[in-house]
Task: structure prediction
Amino acid sequence: MTTTEPQIATPLTGKHLAAEIRRRTTERVAALGTPTKLVVVTATDDESSLWYVRSIAKAAAAVGIDCDIADLGPWASAARIRAVLRDLSQDPSVHGIILQTPLPPGIALADLAGEIDPSKDVDGANPASLGRLAAGQPGFAPATAEAVLALLDHHGVPLEGRNVAVVGRSTVVGTPAALLLLERRATVTVCHSRTADLAAHTSQADVVVVAVGKPGLINAAHVAPGAVVIDVGTTPSDDGSLLGDVDAAEVERVAGALTPVPGGVGPVTTTLLLSHTVDAAERTQSDVREIRT
Result:
């Protein structure tokens, strides 16, 4: 009597895609011939957030982008952060601006992101950027949401006409990812904390995108056999590791493909932030040339 080993989902890693984006970005920075500058504004003492900011600076340096960290401290006022964002938006030497979260208590990203010039809003935080995305106009989408689409494309996952369930409706990932998927002619269902019977929606989807920050939320009962599952969750555990929103041990025995955490969406997000910064620098250079001619 022979036994058949259960099929394990294909891992949709972001390593090779991130490397390709990084290579192209390095070439584009060199072709510009002038300094390209990104500024990350922080106002926190959250170590995991500060670690991420340092990783952005390191990645930027590797492709030739100057990256400054404007550390305003965990008790910075909204007025102080707003003033810095305004100054950076008006500084012609700055091409990209990121306002890193979390922010000090009582200060919301949505209240300040509008101060970022949309042409420098490389992580799509300004509400105007989301509006442009919804209207199909040029602008920067949040890098994490764009990374979801880039990863699906890289691994050859078709989207047109397919049913996609997006779990999470934040303006950082869920909503912009849904808009990008609609642009690709997928049929999109957006689920959230008030969705009754979540599994009834996700188990009918060809592709499931999960971005809620709740470890283990999605298990085998939520996934159709052979479905593609994109796990955007990255919750730090007590031992310092990262936990996804998907119970990978269960889901990998049902799904056809699954992103690992870490190593899936994350590496692609960081490289897209850098690519967006070069986009902004190229547009600035093009505008200068038009003015001179």
